[in-house]
């Protein structure tokens, strides 16, 4: 195929190629995106196997450290952490109620097989989040009662010897 060197013809070709309708781009749902050679049943089982979320777990751990540091360094503002405790309690309660509702619908046979799989996944995620939030709720209570050295032990501290080791000192 010979290339057309006429600039007007090239411009016309460019415009027609540019104006051709394109397929709309579909958003990818990474949870439901099949992996090459994977059946839908295997995919659903692998989705249900997701029990841990290390970054989210670490975020909750940072929240706990923030609670302890707030009590130690800013005791006048600790009422904000008590507010966090109440809000997390409300979220946990609502997650539990939704979990019970889905279980009730499932026992009545009102969910399809796909919806049952989604409900199982939701139940695991709900339990994970409830466990993490309940940990923060309990930690706020623990920090509230802590004083002195016990409070210092609950606060996050960098291990200076380890950071010096990486700096080459």
Amount of beta strand: under 5%
**Unreliable sequence segments:** 24-36, 159-169
* Contiguous helical run count: 7
Shape: flat
Distance between the termini: 67 Å
Into which percent range does the helicity of residues fall?
A: over 70%
Order of helices and strands: HHHHHHH
Number of strands: 0
The biggest sheet amounts to: none
Structural class: mainly alpha
Mean pLDDT: 77
Radius of gyration: 27 Å
Task: Please name the defining characteristics of this protein.
0% strand, disordered C terminus, mainly alpha, 169 residues, single chain
List the helices and strands and how they pair.
Blueprint: H1 7-19, H2 40-48, H3 54-73, H4 78-107, H5 113-145, H6 148-154, H7 160-167
Textual characterization of the structure:
With 169 residues, the chain is mostly helical. Helix content is 71%, strand content 0%. It contains 7 helices and no strands. The protein has helices at 7-19, 40-48, 54-73, 78-107, 113-145, 148-154, 160-167. The longest helix is centred in the C-terminal third of the chain and has 33 residues, at 113-145. Mean pLDDT is 77; it is low at 24-36 and 159-169.
